[in-house]
Specification:
Rossmann fold; 2 domains; 13 helices; 9 strands
């Protein structure tokens, strides 16, 4: 069985790496904040001292950190993966980052004869824990085929989209859909409350119909009980909106709906809510409506 390395044990990475271990792969992990490695170590993973050491001990190295600069640090930095890989290692970045930076990094690995895949995910921390993520992959098809068993440990819908960076483009598409859907859920539920009907009954009724969605079922349910905890953080979604807007500039396509969503999330940032979950966009809607949902 291939030896797997995992770098970045945050909300997402902790669940994903645990599922790799449960599937029976030998696993080596590293996290900047060492205490986060403890549950994995208890479950049988080895803990490395650097991303470089993870690479030395693995056939497939996965990272799940925050933004492009963080991926650059763990992959290309002085103690980075690039200094520990050997011919045949596959490097898989599962963070959501810029498609342009992804392509640049992939070419750095190709220069050394190493294949890199971008494999961002959708499905949230719940999907990460349950092993039901949707995984959108860009890069070499043979490397993708080789990595399928490890993807299957983490996800249910696994799609090879195209070349390097194409997985990240697909993830940007996903985030356009997520943001407008989340805003729609918040607006619709506050509308129901303001109109004086039983919001819980409305939620059940519409979740089972043509307006049903992951956002309505999961984040909608959180909103009904006033739960604004992450899940997926506002600050991470602002990063994704930045990536989407940079990409829209490069392909010269206006994004009207997404622009409204971006302004609302900038407002959440200004209100000091950047560490809350994205469902907290309801706060902006509540202000406009002069109505509290929960
Ligand atoms: P998180 O809980 O904030 O965890 C971030 C992880 O990255 C932590 O392990 C952190 O280490 C590490 N990290 C960040 N910068 C680093 C650096 N410069 N060097 C080394 N390690 C660094 O975030 P998350 O929710 O797991 O998200 C991870 C990625 O998945 C992001 O790209 C996000 O957009 C994407 N994503 C998230 C969700 C979601 O619902 N949460 C869904 C799909 C995709 P420390 O522990 O030391 O801080």
């Amino acid at each position: 069985m291939k030896r797997i390395g995992f770098i970045g044990l945050g909300l997402m990475g902790s669940g994903m790496s645990m599922n790799i271990l449960k599937a029976g792969f030998p696993l080596t992990v590293w996290n900047r904040t060492v205490s986060r490695t403890e549950p994995l170590a208890k479950a049988g993973a080895k803990v490395a001292k650097s991303p470089k050491e993870v690479a030395e001990k693995s056939d497939i190295v996965i990272d799940m950190v925050t933004d492009s600069k963080d991926v650059e640090e763990v992959l290309l930095g002085p103690n980075g993966v690039i200094n520990g890989v050997k011919p045949g290692t596959i490097v898989i970045d599962m963070s959501t980052i810029s498609p342009i930076k992804t392509r640049e990094m992939a070419s750095r690995f190709v220069e050394r004869g190493i294949k890199m895949l971008d494999a961002p995910v959708s499905g949230g921390d719940i999907g990460a824990r349950n092993g039901t993520l949707s995984i959108m992959v860009g890069g070499d098809k043979d490397a993708f085929d080789e990595a399928i068993p490890v993807f299957q440990a983490m996800g249910k819908t696994i799609t090879h989209i195209g070349g390097n960076g194409d997985g990240q483009i697909c993830k940007a598409v996903n985030q356009i859909l997520v943001g407008m859907n989340m805003l729609g859920v918040a607006e619709a539920l506050v509308f129901a409350k303001k109109a004086g009907v039983d919001v819980k009954k409305v939620h059940t009724a519409v979740a089972g119909g043509a307006a049903g969605s992951w956002q309505l079922t999961n984040n909608g349910a959180k909103l009904l009980v006033g739960d604004h905890e992450p899940g997926f953080k506002v600050k991470d979604y602002l990063k994704d909106l930045r990536i989407i807007m940079e990409t829209s500039d490069s392909i010269k396509m206006p994004l009207l709906g997404t622009s409204i969503v971006q302004q609302m999330f900038k407002n959440l940032d200004a209100e000091g809510l950047r560490d809350k979950g994205t469902q907290v966009v309801v706060v902006v809607v509540e202000k406009l409506a002069k109505e509290k949902l929960a």
